[in-house]
Specification:
227 residues; four-stranded antiparallel sheet; 8 helices; globular; binds adenosine-5'-triphosphate
């Protein structure tokens, strides 16, 4: 179980706190969704959970252990928004091996199989993959590290509806083995697979019921009849 207790982030350069007494609980093998508008603090929350930014106050615990940024770097695997822009390898093999030169081919095949890319030759250039396949590869890059918590920043951004649907199915499958925390400005189709949902506004996190929110966002029947 991951616990955030009264987490606050107030960098010196900001007049107000970016995250304000954020608390949440999150069980393993679940998908948590944080929905908030641009500038609400979503990416900052992920950066803190990935150990890349340091909280100002509050606590982060895994079960009863207090987590430091270096624990968080071990525990979490962060997939940035538009992760394909950060590919450095010339091939899938190079991309997976970056930082892991010792990686065995079975480990690579296992990670690729988790994301449905095991049919592709390892010499394939990441740039030649479709947008959806590139997102899958960026997930495989994190799975190689066997993180406890996958942190995904706007995973659907820039994908067409069919790739979005495939990615939702993949995330639903991944949560059988991993815990996933997804942040997005748009609840969209992720609500259907979310076990927990929060809204984030001006750094204030509030728990909401994913089913209740999905029902609220459903277009009224009269609109559906016009489509
Ligand atoms: N170290 C910092 N110093 C000053 N301001 C910061 C710092 N880090 C983040 N901010 C500000 O905090 C606010 C929240 O940023 P953040 O990137 O977390 O928002 P977001 O919800 O992810 O937005 P978007 O959806 O547009 O990516 C922004 O106004 C940003 O400029």
């Amino acid at each position: 179980m991951l616990y955030l207790k009264n987490l606050t982030y107030h960098p010196a350069a900001s007049a107000t706190a970016i995250l304000k007494a954020v608390s949440l609980e999150f069980a393993p093998q679940k998908l948590g969704l944080v929905i908030g508008p641009s500038g609400s603090g979503k990416s900052t929350l992920l950066e803190i959970l990935a150990g890349l930014a340091h909280k100002t106050s509050g606590e982060i615990l895994w079960r009863d252990q207090v987590l430091t940024p270096s624990h968080l770097q071990q525990l979490g695997g962060l997939v940035f928004q538009f992760p394909e822009r950060h590919f450095c390898g010339g091939t899938i093999l190079e991309e997976l091996r970056l930082g892991h030169p010792e990686l065995r081919s079975e480990q690579m095949q296992q990670a690729l199989s988790e994301v449905g890319l095991d049919h592709l030759p390892l010499q394939t250039a990441p740039q030649s993959l479709s947008g959806g396949q590139q997102r899958r590869l960026s997930l495989a890059v994190q799975l190689i590290r066997q993180p406890h918590l996958l942190l995904l920043d706007e995973p659907m951004a820039g994908l067409d509806w069919s790739m979005r649907r495939q990615l939702v199915n993949l995330l639903a499958k991944l949560k059988q083995h991993w815990s996933l925390l997804v942040v997005s400005h748009d609840a969209g189709e992720l609500l259907a697979i979310a076990d927990y949902c929060w809204t984030l506004n001006h750094g204030i996190l509030q728990r909401v019921d994913p089913q209740g929110l999905a029902a609220q966002l459903q277009p009224p029947q009269s609109v559906l009849e016009c489509l």
